[in-house]
Design a protein that fits this description.
- With about 400 residues, this protein is of the alpha/beta class.
- The protein folds into three domains: about 70 residues; about 100 residues, no CATH class; about 200 residues, Rossmann fold (3-Layer(aba) Sandwich), CATH 3.40.50.
- The protein has 17 helices and 13 strands.
- It has a seven-stranded mixed beta sheet, sandwiched between helices.
- Helix 2 runs antiparallel to helix 3.
- The longest helix is centred in the N-terminal third of the chain and has 33 residues.
- The radius of gyration is 29 Å and the shape is elongated.
């Protein structure tokens, strides 16, 4: 009974203005209808029609408008106050995806913690994609929030991480050093290299030089990539390009084939240039392709040209996201050959990068501080694709290129 009374109170509080207008209109309508009894003929009909119309407007405010509003909201609901109990129940019953994006989360406070952790375990057990983004407790942004809120924000975040350790085997918290800044992409991944790149504004300042600095040998390599991609588009309705780099790579052959296209890039300038070239593009990380490309038609292909795959920290996260997105994958990289090494070295010099190459069992790595690029061994890429459940195809192209593709089994 108390819960029902509380719901009614909430209903009336949230619609105070509507009820006042409805009452006023009802009173006006009643007055018009009352006046109709004292008149005759046309005047009576006019007052009756006006009175009924005004009453109907009042009913619309009270009855029909909330119904239409609920239909418009569909599954998205705005809450004036966060009901932690209901949120925990919703997480426990989730079937598709759960995103928790906060500075720190009150769901891990004493009164909600056990049920939240139990609900998260239940959701993960059903295969729910669960993402948790917290502010880095050691970042300047955390200190700024502490000053703004007059709360020990870094300690609250650390407490969250300590409680989440119980789920460490099944859930990996992600930290961000800062919220989205004007003109920059949101930072949702936090390997050490990601953090250094974000702090230095790496993508904003270097993407153009990496695209414009191509040598004749690299230009021929990219032309061969476009030819290979053009031959791989049959049967697809859409292509997602990771690292769209201004729309200068496979975009022309994809649009010529009449397929839907979405470019992803961490550099806002590259996204703007891709849009100017006629392609749809968004500022984001290819490791979030399952979320960013959710609206594209299927079947779809995730294309990673120009060794983008080797430039991404934790490249296996890309494959995991592609599996969640239900896309095939096309990894375009370099062969393990002396010629490929020379071409890469000439390209990096042309871009003004001073770095070193090293070779190990994983592949051939180039490291120049914030620029880190690996041509992975073909066997390792095949192993990763197979582990993600893909059927593998391998093909050399041009003088130095190697394509390793994965089709959903």
């Amino acid at each position: 009974m108390r819960r029902r009374s509380a719901r009614l109170a909430t209903f009336f509080r949230s619609r105070t203005r509507q009820l006042v207008w409805a009452g006023s209109l009802a009173a006006l309508g009643a007055a018009l209808l009352e006046g109709a009894y004292e008149t005759a003929d046309f005047t009576r009909d006019l007052l009756v029609n006006l009175g009924v119309g005004v009453v109907m407007v009042g009913l619309t405010f009270v009855v029909f408008d909330p119904i239409v509003e609920d239909m418009r909201r569909n599954a998205v609901q705005e809450h004036r106050d966060l009901n932690h109990d209901q949120l925990v129940a919703d997480i426990a019953a989730a079937r598709g995806e759960v995103d928790v994006l906060e500075t720190w989360t009150g769901l891990l406070e004493d009164r909600h913690r056990d049920r939240f952790l139990a609900g998260t375990v239940a959701a993960l057990g059903r295969g729910v994609h669960f993402r948790l983004l917290l502010l880095d407790p050691e970042s300047q942004a955390a200190e700024q929030r502490a000053d703004e809120l007059h709360l020990p924000v870094p300690q609250l975040i650390m407490d969250n991480l300590q409680h989440l350790s119980a789920l460490r085997a099944r859930l990996e918290p992600r930290l961000t050093a800062a919220g989205p800044a004007a003109g920059r992409c949101p930072v949702t991944w936090s390997t050490p290299l990601d953090e250094r790149r974000a702090s230095a504004g790496f993508f904003d300042t270097t993407w153009r030089s990496l695209v414009d600095g191509v040598t004749p040998a690299v230009r021929a390599h990219l032309a061969a990539e476009r030819t290979l991609i053009a031959g791989r588009l049959a049967g697809y309705r859409a292509v997602v390009e990771g690292g769209c780099a201004g729309g200068t790579l496979p975009l022309p052959v994809i649009t010529t084939a009449g397929l839907d296209y979405l470019g992803l890039d961490r550099a806002p300038g590259a996204v703007a240039a891709t849009r100017a070239a006629g392609g749809d593009a968004v500022c984001g990380d290819v490791r979030d392709v399952d979320r960013l490309a959710a609206q594209l038609p299927r079947p779809a292909l995730l294309a990673l040209p120009f060794n983008v795959f080797g430039n991404i920290p934790e490249p296996r996260e890309v494959l995991a996201a592609a599996v969640r997105a239900g896309t095939d994958v096309l990894v375009l990289t370099y062969r393990d050959s002396p010629l490929a090494l020379r071409v890469r070295a000439g390209y990096y010099r042309r871009c003004g990068l001073t770095g070193v190459f090293r070779t190990d069992e994983a592949g051939v790595h180039f490291d120049a501080g914030l620029v880190s690029s690996t041509a992975y061994r073909p066997g390792l890429v095949r192993e990763w694709l197979a582990g993600a459940g893909y059927e593998i195809r391998e093909q050399e192209y041009g003088a130095i290129g190697l394509a390793v593709s994965g089709a959903r089994a």
